[in-house]
TrEMBL record:
Name of the protein in question: Coenzyme F420-0:L-glutamate ligase/coenzyme F420-1:gamma-L-glutamate ligase
KW Magnesium (keyword) present: yes
Record Pfam families: F420_ligase, Nitroreductase
Enzyme Commission number(s) of this protein: 6.3.2.31, 6.3.2.34
NCBIfam families: F420_cofE, F420_FbiB_CTERM, PRK13294.1
Gene3D superfamilies membership: CofE-like (3.30.1330.100), NADH Oxidase (3.40.109.10)
Domain Coenzyme F420:L-glutamate ligase-like: 13-203
GO molecular function, one term: coenzyme F420-1:gamma-L-glutamate ligase activity
InterPro entries on file: F420-0_g-glutamyl_ligase, F420-0_gamma-glut_ligase-dom, F420_FbiB_C, Nitroreductase, Nitroreductase-like
Record domain Nitroreductase: where: 241-412
Keywords of the record: GTP-binding, Ligase, Magnesium, Manganese, Metal-binding, Multifunctional enzyme, Nucleotide-binding, Oxidoreductase, Potassium
Length: 432
């Protein structure tokens, strides 16, 4: 069924000052009907609630309003505020306010919407919905639009899942952001510079609810469902610092394509002489992993017994450390190849040449680990293959020039790794 809507400006509103009765001013500016949706720009709500500050306090105000930094580019900050809204500068704004002052968002936009709605019903006896709106930029799209940041008496989301479209296809994912659509539509009448901060959407009474409702919170995507919760540089930095050594894995399988994506990222690491000194052996079958680990365990026990003189009890305690590899559902053995290296007749330069290539494989392994963290996998790099390279080459049938450089256990973590305290750079820096 098609419908038509009216979007009506509320004209004649005065300059709003602290303590202003917005509900009374709105009903004086337009005769409201039950089922109307009143859309109010947050700026006038902030003015009425006394959310005004001096402009020199802007950065401190942003700090106070923000609970999480999402992205930073120069002086511009995208942050999440206490209500969960992700926006530039926490909504702290110098537009539509006197020079030298700034406006903060309403302290609780949902509560502001409820108060305006209650006041309108008190004055008119009519049941309306109220939205508080603010201007947002959007990922992947140029231009600004108004969205709802507070709501009372409005069905903010319309869930179409389980319904069928005109071709009979069942809708599985469609949930319409009704509140944001209303906010954007109303802004076509309010505008940004016309001095018309309130508009009324008429013709959608089914979106107005008897109760105030939950407010805007159901529209805020939970962090765990947000695939793009950080800016680019912040995501890269976080991916690096999120990497943890995981020693207990669940029994969930590892997707081979995720490993191949990680290898593709690994081989972008810097390397000497424009070489590609990396090879990655993927142990995808339990049989291959068991054969390698059994042979490595035999070699390890032999070394501890014959070279270190340990007894069997002590050997058993030490070799139990290898269980992290044995219990992992997937293993990767990174190998260093010296193809393209320069030959030197003296030990000093020959050693430095190998160290250059070793640094390159280390960078590649780090790329691998960080990428797998981004894929949701846990990893543990274990050095053991470096202590029995001949054994590893024999069991895996590797060329003589491939030097195993540890092994990487991969799998879904059995438990979430603990947070790690942020490390300062200064203890590791010497400035000359």
């Amino acid at each position: 069924m098609s419908r038509s809507l009216e979007i009506l400006p509320v004209l004649g509103l005065p300059e709003i000052e602290q303590g202003a009765d917005l509900g009374e001013l709105i009903v004086k500016g337009l005769e409201l009907r039950s089922g109307d949706i009143v859309v109010v720009t947050s700026k006038i709500v902030s003015k009425a609630e006394g959310r005004l500050m001096q402009a020199e306090d802007r950065e401190a105000a942003i700090d106070a309003e923000a609970v999480r930094l999402v992205a930073r580019r120069g002086r511009t900050r995208i942050v999440q505020n206490r209500q969960g809204l992700v926006m530039a500068a926490a909504g702290v704004d110098a537009s539509n306010t006197a020079p030298g002052t700034i406006l903060l968002l309403p302290l609780d936009p949902d509560d502001s919407a409820r108060a305006i709605r209650a006041r309108i019903e008190e004055l008119t006896g009519r049941q309306v919905g109220v939205l508080i709106t603010d201007t947002f930029g959007r990922p992947w799209r140029s231009g600004l639009t108004d969205v709802a940041i507070g709501a009372a008496g409005v069905s903010i989301l319309q869930d179409h899942r389980g319904q069928r479209d005109s071709h009979g296809n069942e809708l599985a994912l469609t949930i319409t952001a009704t509140a944001d659509e209303l906010a954007a539509a109303a802004d076509l009448v309010k505008g940004k510079a016309t001095g018309t901060p309130v508009a009324v959407v008429r013709g959608l009474p089914e979106a107005v609810t008897e109760t105030d409702g939950t407010g805007i919170s159901p529209m805020i995507r939970p962090i765990e469902d947000d695939m793009f919760r950080l800016g680019t540089s912040e995501a890269i930095r976080t991916a690096v610092t999120m990497r943890r050594t995981v020693r207990e894995f669940s029994d969930q399988p590892v997707h081979p394509e995720a490993i191949r994506r990680a290898v593709a990222a690994a081989v972008t690491a810097p390397a000497p002489h424009h070489t590609m000194p990396w090879r990655f052996v993927l142990l995808e079958s339990p049989e291959a992993r068991t054969a390698l680990l059994d042979a490595m365990l035999t070699a390890w026990r032999r070394d501890l017994r014959e070279l270190d003189g340990w007894d069997e009890e002590r050997i058993a305690r030490r070799t139990a450390r290898g269980d992290v590899l044995r219990n992992a559902p997937y293993l990767v053995v990174p190998c260093l190849v010296m193809d393209g290296s320069h030959a030197y007749p003296d030990a000093r330069r020959a050693g430095a040449e190998r160290e250059m290539f070793t640094v390159a494989i280390g960078a590649a392994v780090q790329n691998l680990l960080v990428t797998l963290t981004g894929e949701g996998y846990g990893t543990a790099w274990v050095s053991s293959t470096m202590f029995c390279r001949d054994t590893v080459r024999e069991v895996l049938d590797l060329p003589a020039g491939w030097d195993p450089m540890g092994a990487v256990a991969v799998g879904r973590p059995a438990t979430m790794p603990h947070d790690r305290a942020e490390r300062a750079a200064e203890p590791f820096i010497t400035v000359r």
